[in-house]
Amino acid sequence: MFERFTKDARAVVTGAVEHAERGGAQAVDAEHLLLALLDREGSRASFALAVLGGGQWLESARTALGEARRRGGLSQAEAEALAGLGIDVGEIVARVEEVHGVGAMSGDRKGRRGWSGHRPFSRGAKDVLVRALRVATARRDRHIGDEHILLALTGRPGVPAEVLADRGVTYESVTRVLYGGGEAKAG
């Protein structure tokens, strides 16, 4: 499937691997794909994000992704749902980090021996890439671009979609920007 990726989409995938490596993550997650997309310039996805106000919220999106990783990958909606059941995720994170160190719930493997350096793609990241293929196919595009990865991230439940939606970036708004059908507005 990778041979069908454009240069920009390949850069997103390799950028995601780099984000995972820098963070010491066990696997490349969907969040790493979003971080790599946020790093891009001069591509279709970066254009769509810029039109939707990306310059104003890129740092807050990165921060929100880091906070979700610290919560063990729980989205803000999931943490709020648990709070409704009387479970304080913030308190759990604080206690775990008190004993095991900051970032202990993120699944990072920093400092562990025997790590080969190869990071597999998580089920979530693989799902995003398969969805990107489906989006491209549905649009009758011959190649998978970074815009298809962005659309796949917005159309899949989870932390990346929540972070983007909180900033007005939804499947519908990205589709409007990239393919027309009315004026796109963030938020």
Would you kindly provide a written description of the structure presented here, covering whatever features stand out?
The protein is globular. With 187 residues, the protein is an all-alpha fold. Residues 109-115 and 182-187 have low confidence and may be disordered. The N and C termini lie far apart (34 Å). It has a single domain (2-179), classed as Clp, N-terminal domain (Double Clp-N motif, Orthogonal Bundle), CATH 1.10.1780. It has helices spanning 7-23, 30-39, 44-51, 54-70, 76-84, 89-100, 123-138, 146-154, 159-165, 171-179. Helices cover 61% and strands 0% of the residues.
Give the SSE map.
Elements (H helix, E strand, L loop, with lengths): L6 H17 L6 H10 L4 H8 L2 H17 L5 H9 L4 H12 L22 H16 L7 H9 L4 H7 L5 H9 L8
Helix pairs in contact: 1-2, 1-8, 2-7, 2-8, 3-8, 4-9, 7-8, 8-10
Pfam families: Clp_N (PF02861)
Keywords: Repeat
InterPro entries: Clp_N_dom_sf (IPR036628), Clp_R_N (IPR004176)
Largest sheet: none
CATH fold-level assignment? Double Clp-N motif
If you compute it from the alpha carbons, what radius of gyration comes out, rounded to the nearest whole angstrom?
A: 17 Å
Overall strand count: 0
Count of the separate structural domains: 1
Q: In what range is the share of β-strand residues?
A: under 5%
Compact summary:
With 187 residues, this protein is mainly α. The chain is built from ten helices and no strands. It holds the Pfam family Clp_N.
Considering the chains and any ligands shown, give keywords for the structure.
Double Clp-N motif; disordered C terminus; 187 residues; 0% strand
